Amino acid sequence: MSRESLTGMGENISGGRISDSASAVRNRLSPTSGADIVGLFVALLMVLLVLDIVRRLVTGGIAYTKLLEYLWWGLRDAMYIALAAVGLSMTYSILQFANFSHGDLITTGAFGGWAAAYLVGGWGLASVGELVLVRATSGGVSPGQVGLQVFASPLAILIGMVVAGAVTVLVALAIDRLVYKRMRDQGGISMLIASVGVALALRYFLAVIFTNRKRGVTATAPDVGPFTAHELTLVIIAFALIVGLHLLLQRTKLGKSMRAMADNKDLALITGIPTERVITATWIIGAAFAGISGYLIVLDRGSVSINLGWFLLLLIFAAVILGGIGSIYGALVGSLIIGMTVNVSLIWLPSDLAKVSAFILMILILVFKPNGLLGGVETT
Amino acid sequence: MTLLDVANLDSGYGDLQIINGVDMQVGDGEYVTIVGPNGAGKSTVMKSVFGLTTYMGGSIEFKGTEISGYRPEEIISTGIGYVPQSDNVFPSMSVMENLEMGAYILDEVPQERIDRIFDRFPILEERRQQNAGDLSGGQQQMLAMGRALMLDPDLLLLDEPSAGLAPDLVQDMFDRIDRINDDGTGVLLVEQNAKEALRRCNRGYVLVQGQNRYEDTGDALLADEQVRKDFLGG
Ligand SMILES: Nc1ncnc2c1ncn2[C@@H]1O[C@H](COP(=O)(O)OP(=O)(O)OP(=O)(O)O)[C@@H](O)[C@H]1O
Ligand SMILES: [Mg+2]
């Protein structure tokens, strides 16, 4: 409010009216902007690509089943990206920084969880060291000998998943105490840079324990209809967790206080929400989801490596930014778009380039909608 | 009886002192207004009462208890409600959820308080499922007040509730504040519509550069030549 406001409400209100009508005029007269053109371009491109898919289906250039397979893979990738993306989005909106160590939390969960699964499922089949380190050295027991797959050892797989979440939560909380908690008021950039350091430290720490050898982990499971048992497991569990998170956010007091804090931190403080406790809950949920995501990716792909999460981080950021950074539901939408794009673009592109197409799409959409798809809506 | 007694308060942000020896009282059920130029520290006084600034000295007593150093949730539970100047709703949460957040410190949402607030602001009941961010400015102010009234506070701090409202809505807002006060709730109001606020209140303070400048009944301040000339635009 301006200084004149004290002289009474007259000036004040008419001032508001003037600026309102000015912006209305600006809107009416605004010429087509560059963003609109890009938007039009993206829409046109989409229509052309869909028409091309139809053409290929009709002429037999691509089999109907092949397309369905790409869509299914898109959904599968979307699910594990989403598990990680909601956590990244939550830490962004509630702690207000972009956490570059989120990818290595995924890796933490992958190794931690499979170490537990190996111990439980492979007990007596190999030395404890070999099991705990998830076949760190070559030449020992083979994945087939341990034989971990959902039908043969469901309990070991389940226990591994729970441990994956739990270990990742412990690591994330420890890192928060050691690093981020001391930096709460320092602003997003310092915390972002610190998180890059944390990412490297965590990865090298894992490499020292588990080595950086990429190795097979699971045994093959029989297919379930057209799907592999493990990708089906991934999709079902990820879907259940996301529905669970949705219910938590909408129905419970904790969930509502998390949304409140993501919305307006100062107001949350004023209403008596214990902000540190909400931050702890955010780490717990975000880290558990990230860890389980890593664990399920290994289940699906069959192998684990030290760069699992780091390589994935870019796609996860793409999903989060695409949906509108800080918006949890936006992260879900973004994940779906990224997952689908990476796979459906296989129709036209070799697989190396397919990932690139996801980033190009992200950039095009951001030019058109700088706040992301759900960014302006602030749907947390 | 004195509800709120601020005496010789010094406070600010970090090393920056804004409030300099301010005294301010609100009696039980009293309606008190703070006016003053922009940047005078009006909002800072309110934030200080709520423990959101750096405390530097003096005392803040509420119902005879020193509350400086209390955490926000403790201050709420002693019976103070606070509506900040801006960003005073949770935009992506529904009207209903915003009200629920007002009763966060209780184990259960008190349904009779919600009914009471819907009686007071019927439009909120109509819009109960809408996101607060989709409400008009006036409706958001009502929601922010409703949220602050959820715990039935003895004192309500209102920071410029009429900011940005159309003229007829400004009058409506003042009428609503009158009614809240008539029901026995003490009100401490910061207003840019200084004349109207002084006309309606029991007593007023003129705050300048973080210090008390004038203090009197609303009518007396309105009648004062100097106050009129310097702060009320003649
Ligand atoms: N968070 C903050 N950190 C540092 N200085 C601040 C902060 N908030 C306000 N100030 C400063 O404190 C002084 C008083 O601000 P305050 O918001 O209390 O004024 P006000 O009387 O409420 O003004 P207005 O009529 O514009 O709302 C101003 O100089 C302002 O710049
Ligand atoms: Mg102010």
Describe this structure in words.
Chain B: Keywords: Amino-acid transport, ATP-binding, Nucleotide-binding, Transport. Chain B: Residues 1-234 form the ABC transporter domain. Chain B: One of its GO terms (molecular function) is ATP hydrolysis activity. The complex is a heterodimer of chains A (380) and B (234). Chain A is globular and about 70 Å long. Chain A has 380 residues and is mostly helical. The model of chain A is unreliable at 1-29 (pLDDT under 50). A two-stranded antiparallel sheet of chain A has the order 1-2. Chain A has helices spanning 9-29, 34-59, 64-95, 102-121, 128-132, 143-146, 154-178, 188-210, 229-251, 253-263, 265-270, 275-301, 308-323, 328-344, 351-368; strands spanning 215-216, 303-304. Chain A is built from 15 helices and two strands. Helix content of chain B is 37%, strand content 29%. The radius of gyration of chain B is 17 Å and the shape is globular. Chain B has 234 residues and is an alpha/beta fold. Classes of the chains: A mainly alpha (380), B alpha/beta (234). At the A-B interface, α1, α10 and α11 of A face α2, α3 and α8 of B. Adenosine-5'-triphosphate is lined by residues 13, 16, 18, 36, 38-44, 85 of chain B.
Give the ordered list of helices and strands of chain B.
Answer: EEEHEEHEHHHHEHEHEEHH
Strand adjacency order, main sheet of chain A:
1-2
What coarse outline of chain B follows from CA principal-axis ratios? globular
**Major sheet summary line of chain A:** 2 strands, antiparallel
Protein name (chain B): ABC transporter
GO molecular function (chain B): ATP binding; ATP hydrolysis activity; branched-chain amino acid transmembrane transporter activity
Organism (chain B): Halovivax asiaticus JCM 14624
Pfam family, one (chain B): ABC_tran
